[in-house]
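Take a sample.
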Amino acid sequence: MDVHSFYAVIADRSQFILQLRRTRLGTLQIRANSKLSTTENFKQDDRQPRRYSSEESRRLLIEATLESIVDVGFSSTSVSEIVARANLSRGMVHLYFENKDSLLVAAARHAAEVYYRNLSEQLATAGTRPQEIIETVVLSDLGEIILNERTVKIWFAFRGEAHANKAITQFSDTRDDQLRDMIFNAFVEIATEQGEPEPARFARDTTHGTLALLEGMWTDYLLHSDSFSRNSAARIIFRFLSGVYPQHFNLDGAALKQVTPCSV
């Protein structure tokens, strides 16, 4: 083999080795890109909202709305804040509630339903006399299950917004028909037993008085939760009721002695 042939062979081999290295580097780069793409996909999947049933999605959005109101206040409870907490897309709000206002109404309705469910559970174990019903309403309304930092923030936030969103009013009004009628009917029976000449009018006044006192206790708790006394709050209300209906209430609540109706 002459010198020229020798160098030609060497050059061919060098070219072959260089091409082989390039091929291997290309394969490694493809594999690296594939792994990177897979990793990015996993990251994107982690950021994707999870899929839930329609009922579960509605519940998550409502709960996220209430928790946002508690944590950051009503004015900062935006759609972005809500869906981030619920881990759902913005489209879910429009799909299930049409808009933010409708979602807020649904959240207010849910809060009211929770309130009455807790009250109903308390009434289920209460006595049947009207003064026992009133006592249960008062103690339940002032109890830790219903009156706590979370519920107070929610209720007062909705009441503050009620002027701008009238649909919320029916679920946050202190003169709510369901609660007012329950108290009124019990007071009518008590006033009749006491022999009042106008039991309905008498009952109406004491109904509004009792609701006003309860509302005042909630406001006091909102402003002074660290020093608020549930026992003192209940005693103040029962002091008022014992002055109006001395045969049916005392400072501890319902007086359960048998009452003989007075003749008019």
